[in-house]
Amino acid sequence: MQYAIGIVTYQPDITRLQENLQAAAENLQGGPILLVDNGSQNIADIQSLTDNIGNVTLMRNSNNLGIAAALNQLCRQAQELGCEWMVTLDQDSVIQSGMLQEFCNYTDQSDVAIICPRIEDRRLGRQHTRLTSGTEYVSHAITAGNMVRLKAWQAVQGFTEELFIDGVDFDFCLKLREAGWQILRTNNVCLYQEMGHGRKIALPFHHQMSVLNHSPQRLYYIARNYLWIGRRHHQRLHWSLEVAKRLFIVLCFERQKWQKLRAMFTGICHSFKF
Fold first, then answer.
1. Neighbouring residues of 258: CB distance < 8 A, sequence distance ≥ 6
2. Residue in 176, 195, 8, 199 with CA at minimum distance from that of residue 87
3. Domain boundary at 161, 193, 225, which?
4. CATH number of residue 8's parent domain
C-alpha cells in the first residue's frame, strides 16, 4: 500500500509551510510529497523551500484555480506515481507524529474511502466529537488531514471544481456516502487547526457559537455553494439553515457587517444560476 502527501498552497506563510513540509517528510519516510501552488505571489520562496526538502514535487498554476481543481491535480499525480491513497493537508496544517501509521491500521477496510483524525482548533477547541480515542464512522471530514482512497476519488469523479473553495469537502463526502463509501475517524490522533480569526460566543443555557470572521469573499462562496450542495444532495433545509446561521452570526457578532451581508446575498442570488 503506497501513499503520498498532497498540499495546496496559496500565498502561504513560508515559516509555517516549512514546518508543515518537514513534518510531512518525517512521517512519510521517503514517500512522495506533492505540492500544487495556486498562483502565489511568493512562488520564488516556495520553490526555494521545496528545493531544500527532499522528495517534494512542486506543480505551479499560473493563477488561482481553486482548492477543488488543485486537489484533483494532486490525486491524479499520486495515481500516476502508483499510489493507492493520498493524505491531503492545508498549507498550515502540521501533521502529528504517528498519524500516518495510525491511519494505516484501517486501510484494509474495503468500504472506507476516507480516514481522518480528530480535529482541534487552537482557538475554538475540539471539533465535532467528545472522544479522544477509538474510531467512529462520521458523515463528513474537512480536507486537512484526510487519507483519501484514490479508487474512491476516481469512482465519484473527484472534487467538484465549480465550487472553487468552500463546501468542496462537504460535497465530496456526500458524493462518497451516496456511492456507498464510508468515512472513518480515528480519535487516537489529532490535527491542530486555526480557522481564521475564530472565537467562541457564549449563549444562554450554556450553549456556545463559533464566530469565524471570514472575509466577504469567503462568505459569498459559503452562501452560494451551501445552497447548491443542498439542491444537489437533496438536503435543502439543512444547508439553508447553515446559510441562515451564518447570516445571523455576521449580523450580530462580526465587523464589516454590510460588506459581508451584501456578499452573502449576492452568493444566494448566484446559487440559483450556478
1. none
2. 8
3. 193
4. 3.90.550.10
